[in-house]
Amino acid sequence: MITPPAPRLVATDLDGTLLRSDGTVSARTRTALCAAAAGGAEIVFVTARPPRAIAHIAEQVGHLGTAICVNGAVTYELARERIVHTRPVAAEAATAMAETLRERLPGAGFAVETGIRVIAATGFGPRWDHDHRHVVVPTVDDVLRLAESIAKFFVWSADHQSDPLLEMARAVAAEHGECTHSGGTGLVEISAIGVSKASTLAGYCAERGIAPDEVLAFGDMPNDLDVLGWAGSAYAMANAHPAVLAATRRHAGSNDDDGVARVLERLFT
């Protein structure tokens, strides 16, 4: 039997995928990532988090690899701790999204990720423990006025679960942005048209002459589906969202059972 070549690039989500539930990278996972890199694979973390929220993770993996952050809007080099590319939402599109969603979802809360901080309107519920750069202002109009740039637009509703809210957002705002969610309760994330984890990863790979069938990907949430569908080999975590499990043929162990590491060990050790 001919052994297929090892992947040239490993693309993995962080929360719910590579990270354990306590937010750490296990020793086993760190060793497996280093073995993959030593075996010639590029390591790319594809995450909804902004660069400032992966600093402690970068330290845990020895500043190995590159991070595609904010669902594809920001590309960040871990070794040099610098942003190398951004794909922001246009101000006009953000304004149109805010107007449409405010009309269709009375009582919803809004915020933006600027790449530097989160700016939230009063009434936006979510807070992230790993992120202290969270500013609250009176209205969504103030949010848009103060935003240095808009890497991602958030809509949140206390009255909806994320799956039905995502369908509602897509129905009314799809012409202005790419709607998805990464598991936050009642929270939808909207990127610029054409911006996703997969589109940014595809561009990154094309620049390096890496074909989709040379990419191995891991994920657990709807915002990972495009990457899992694009990569030549893809694994949904055992703890993944039902839609991700249904759409992905291969399943890895859970994030708390070092699922990513177990697959990498078979390929690189």
TrEMBL record:
It comes from the Bacteria. Pfam families: Hydrolase_3. GO terms for cellular component: cytosol. GO terms for molecular function: magnesium ion binding; phosphatase activity. Transmembrane segments: none annotated. PANTHER family: HAD SUPERFAMILY HYDROLASE-LIKE, TYPE 3, PHOSPHOSERINE PHOSPHATASE. This is Cof subfamily of IIB subfamily of haloacid dehalogenase superfamily/HAD-superfamily hydrolase, subfamily IIB. It comes from Streptoalloteichus hindustanus.
